[in-house]
Amino acid sequence: MRNSSRSQVDPFIVMDVMEAARRAEAAGRHIIHMEVGQPGTGAPRSAMEALCARMQAEPLGYTVSPGLPELRARIARLYGEWYDVDLAPSRVLVTSGSSGGFLLAFTALFDSGARVGVGAPGYPSYRQILRALGLEPVDLPTTAGNRYQPVPANIAGRDLAGLVIASPGNPTGTMLDRAALGALVEATRAGGVSLVSDEIYHGLEYGERAVSALELTDDVYVVNSFSKYFSMTGWRVGWMVVPEDHVRVVERLAQNLFICAPHASQIAALAAMDCGGELAGNLAVYRRNRALMLEGLPRAGFTDIAPPDGAFYVYADVSAITDDSRILAAEILEQAGVAVTPGLDFDPQRGHRTLRFSYARETADITEGLARLVAFMEARR
């Protein structure tokens, strides 16, 4: 049988790096993981306890497609606590991770062939989900001067139907301040461009709190997840906030595409939202790790880095070291036993000159990984 043209998406290179690291570990090597954006911690303890108690009390089945009403209400309350936004729970829909949210958002907003802008560097699956839906991703090359975030000039004259933004961003960890985000909100509104705001790394900030697009407008799709701040990557549960008149549109799509997010994950997610002490402890670990990275990476020779305001990544320009970051990443894995991600995932045109380092693991791993990187680079010189 033939494959559709829509299925011809690029591989997610970081997953290939993970597989190479797994093979090395299977062969008996100790690998330090700086490749994947996954917290080293598991779900909060109370989340797991709540799920265990619920499973003993009753069988778990389908929920209504928008999600458990109590979870939607708790998510809405979060926007009051974090952003002073009065959000109606009816606008919240629980999804199968943020990936499910993007699939729903892009399907609800755009007709086949529509052009949707994505910042480069940026999360690679935006492009691939868009392609799989018969949409056209349009890379918007960002600059260090604009903190690797899109600005209104990037979208002018490009005939875009939509724009996807992320703050804090992946792979850079940089954020849009209120003025910069406001400028994008105004530019998209004036141009009739639908705005999708990826806020999956909110809660993981090291200075100013990230600004939600919902502080500035209701005319936006916001996508978030329990994977990062709430440390629940494998549970595959997230949420999206949409304008009131889009709720039924997205609900109908969710009913047919997913039925509902996993019931068990929704129960755990609800409990996780009240585990502030444990989650603050996780953030403290990332803060220590970030300080170590900002000191250790320059010692290893990675000096040209984006300022990581949030998330748990450092994005480094390695053009002074190599013109092929994929080969360099393979050498680092083979010789130093540290898994890192080449930038080709995030920027198809310029990523051969960049690497992404994740510091989401335990501090001891970060310390050891940096020591190995320093030794590797000294031997390479």
Question: What's the structural blueprint in terms of helices and strands?
Answer:
Blueprint lengths: L12 H14 L5 E2 L11 H13 L11 H15 L8 E4 L1 H13 L5 E6 L3 H9 L3 E6 L10 H4 L6 E5 L11 H14 L2 E5 L22 E5 L12 E4 L5 H11 L5 H10 L3 H25 L3 E2 L7 E5 L7 H12 L1 E2 L1 E2 L11 E5 L4 H18 L1
Parallel strand pairs: 1-11, 3-4, 3-5, 5-6, 6-7
Antiparallel strand pairs: 2-8, 7-8, 9-10, 10-13, 12-13
Helix pairs in contact: 2-9, 3-9, 4-5, 4-8, 10-12
Write structural notes for this entry.
This protein is of the alpha/beta class. It has 12 helices and 13 strands. The strands form 3 sheets. Strands 2-8-7-6-5-3-4 form a 7-stranded mixed beta sheet, with helices on both faces. Strands 9-10-13-12 form a 4-stranded antiparallel beta sheet. Strands 1-11 form a two-stranded parallel ribbon. α5 links the parallel β3 and β4. α4 crosses α8 and α10 packs parallel to α12. The longest helix is centred in the last third of the chain and has 25 residues. It is globular, with a radius of gyration of 20 Å.
- The unreliable regions are none
The computed structural class is alpha/beta
Helix content: 40-55%
Please list the strands of the largest sheet in the order they lie side by side. Answer: 2-8-7-6-5-3-4
Helix segment tally: 12
Strand content: 5-15%
Secondary-structure element order, as H and E?
HEHHEHEHEHEHEEEHHHEEHEEEH
